[in-house]
Fold:
Amino acid sequence: MLVVLALGQLALAHDFWLKPQGRKAVLWYGHASEDSDYDRGNLKKSLALNAQGEPLKVVQGSDGKHIVLSSQGEAAQLAVEMDTGFWVKTVQGWKNESKRTASGVLLSEWSLYYSKVLLKPEACLNQPFGQPLELVPVALDGKSLKVRLLLHGKGLADVKLYDQHQKVADTDQAGEATVDYRQAMVLSASCRQPLANNPDADRINLHAVLSLP
Amino acid sequence: MKRSFAILLYFCSLSLGAWAHHGGTSTSQGPGTPLETNSPLTLPKGGTVVYTRAEIASFRKFMDFDPNNVDSFQFYQMGISHGLTDYLTATAIVPYTIKSQDGLGSTRGFGDGKVLLTLGFNYAPGEGLQLNGEEDTAVNLGTSEKTYFGLLTGISMPTGRYDIDLGAGVDSGQQPGFGTPTLTAGLSMTRGITERFNIAADVSADFFTPRRNGDKFGNEFRANLAGVLELYADREAFVRRIDGILELNYLHITRDETARVSELGTGGRILYLTPGVRMQVGDVNIGAGVKLPIASALNERSLQQGSEGLEKFRLIMTVSTYF
Structure:
């Protein structure tokens, strides 16, 4: 048993996150160093902003396994919107289907990811893309990073922030939190809201992911 | 009063199957749960599990006890668990027992009915302790960083017969019922260690109340540790999952009392090793294992034929399903 304890690792919940690669960004799915397959059809939108906060055209490529994003012009940050569709949780586990076709549903949700990467972090302060749920850097001093979590443009309070799935902070009343800054960090936050009169899911689960070089 | 039988194990681990992004989910009776060690996981609010369980104990026989050696005990349970909330699960159990003794025959009948409540809570790094919510039921331990706990309390009522006479007087140890209420309290935990391996542990106690004449069964204290390894999983197959289970089960029994006087030939300490397996077949979970006494320190071993620690084995089987 101790051997297994020593060798094993939990497979934590997955996130879509953008891994910086020079002036490009590679879309990964998984936790930490996990590199799981994903459906490229889940990518609904890709965005880029330059250092002045102006939008740039995004070019989608591939390295064979991952979607690779680059921009026409020098991007300071890149972002994607991933829609993984409807999910139901039964005693058989989570399944990627609508609640109208499943039985014994305990939970149902529509899961959307808003992931972004800061290629030039200092140039991205207070420069949101305008995603429905978005982690926006507001201050960076080399040791700490202050972020603001926006839900439809407004600060969202009392939400847990995770770095590599370890909780690192709660957002305050302004939706802000300060965390220790380190290289290659992947911050994430989630927000669930009820979906009224939706035949496919009872709630929407929004995920915001912010990765830094 | 001769102490010669075990009460049914209230902390049955029933079974429900499920698979999420990785591995399978676990409920209080689901895959990833052991056979003997109590699972702390609570059922989803409104969710119901029905189960049956059989335990067959075959005893070593001693010449000094001829011709009336205790031969075997068979314990059967019907149980139902229901999620009152996501953090509170209620369980009701009706046991049926058959106890066989050489030369005298068998006593059989319904035992003492029992009700239990499990309060489920969890600990997450950086978040502290909190009661289970909807995300914590049917949870996939392989993808959760949380450690789950269960606080369990229960009481049995003396609904079973305790006055059956097979021709050699009324032996309390051979009766289906105890004749008095029993109080149960326990604390259990489980957590995933890897995507395919989780551990569970529990400590619990059963406190027997005395009869009017001062007779009383010895209290029972348990400590269990289990490891559950997912050996096979295919959510689309008929056999969806197979778990391998290995448990250590410690039992300490205090002396019985007759007219408030401690009795010889009762009580002791036993350590069992229980290898087992669970299978999820369709919507039904099937578990089986054999409980082997590997060490014991009985108070007066030569007087305790038919007691815990002197079994050849205990065979355990369980079947359950979720509604």
About this structure: Chain A has one helix and 16 strands.
